[in-house]
């Protein structure tokens, strides 16, 4: 759990269910994609009650939703939400295999007609060397936290290596007022090449 101050971390390879899309995250498509990810994640979580329990199953809490964000058109301002490009994802336990993923996907499709189940992928992601911090407050205030993170990186001798960033949502925006939302912000970093 990161602090409200920037830090440099090395993030290992982690398994995820993920869905990619674009447009305003306040729209219906984003909500349906999120719902599809949660229905799959809960299918895995509750599989200990099934006749076919995955090998190595251990009890855990479903992980929070995460999003990796970029812009479709970089000439437009970052405040234009219709210009967002995203991959939303939920981390999965280490015991999950590709075979089990296919099984849970078929199971979820039988229970739900959500079209975004067709778009779910099971992949491993390694963020590697990153700068991260806990942002408390509205999503619209995130640029201030990103500015602090970039300033911290400069002081520590790192540079941001991509405009893409990750957000990990520790609060439910439907239940908590914007000023109290907790979101982990993260972007990749590297040491500048001083040979140039």
Sheet bearing the most strands, described? 6 strands, antiparallel, barrel
Would you identify the CATH H-level superfamily? Regulatory factor, effector binding domain
Helix content: 10-25%
How many β-strands, per DSSP? 7
- Element-by-element helix/strand order: EHEEHEHEEE
Low-pLDDT residue spans: none
Quick one: overall form? globular
Gyration radius, rounded: 18 Å
Strand content: 25-35%
* CATH fold category name: Multidrug-efflux Transporter 1 Regulator Bmrr, Chain A
* Assigned CATH class: Alpha Beta
Q: What's the architecture, going by CATH?
A: Alpha-Beta Barrel
Distance between the termini: 37 Å
Count of discrete alpha- or pi-helical segments spanning 4 or more residues: 3
Structure commentary:
The protein has helices at residues 28-45, 98-111, 142-156, and strands spanning 7-22, 65-71, 84-91, 121-136, 159-160, 165-169, 182-190. It is of the alpha+beta class and 196 residues long. The chain has a single domain, classed as Regulatory factor, effector binding domain (Multidrug-efflux Transporter 1 Regulator Bmrr, Chain A, Alpha-Beta Barrel), CATH 3.20.80. It has a 6-stranded antiparallel β-barrel with strand order 1-3-2-6-7-4. Helix 1 packs across helix 2 (98-111). The longest helix has 18 residues, at 28-45. The mean pLDDT is 94.
Provide tags for this entry:
196 residues, Multidrug-efflux Transporter 1 Regulator Bmrr, Chain A, alpha+beta, globular
Quick synopsis:
The protein has 196 residues and is α+β, with helices and mostly antiparallel strands.
């Amino acid at each position: 759990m990161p602090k409200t101050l920037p830090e440099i971390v090395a993030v290992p390879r982690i398994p995820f269910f993920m869905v990619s899309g674009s447009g305003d995250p306040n729209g219906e498509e984003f909500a349906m994609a999120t719902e599809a990810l949660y229905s799959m994640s809960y299918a895995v979580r509750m599989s200990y009650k099934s006749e076919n329990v995955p090998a190595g199953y251990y009890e855990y809490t479903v992980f929070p939703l995460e999003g990796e964000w970029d812009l479709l058109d970089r000439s437009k301002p970052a405040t234009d939400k219709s210009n967002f490009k995203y991959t939303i994802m939920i981390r999965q336990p280490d015991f999950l295999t590709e075979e089990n993923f296919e099984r849970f996907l078929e199971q979820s499709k039988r229970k739900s007609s959500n079209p975004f189940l067709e778009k779910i992928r099971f992949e491993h992601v390694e963020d590697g060397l990153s700068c991260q911090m806990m942002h408390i407050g509205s999503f619209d205030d995130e640029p201030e936290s990103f500015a602090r993170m970039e300033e911290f990186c400069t002081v520590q001798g790192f540079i941001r290596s991509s405009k893409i960033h990750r957000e990990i949502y520790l609060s439910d925006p439907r239940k908590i007022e914007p000023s109290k939302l907790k979101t982990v912000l993260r972007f990749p970093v590297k040491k500048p090449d001083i040979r140039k």
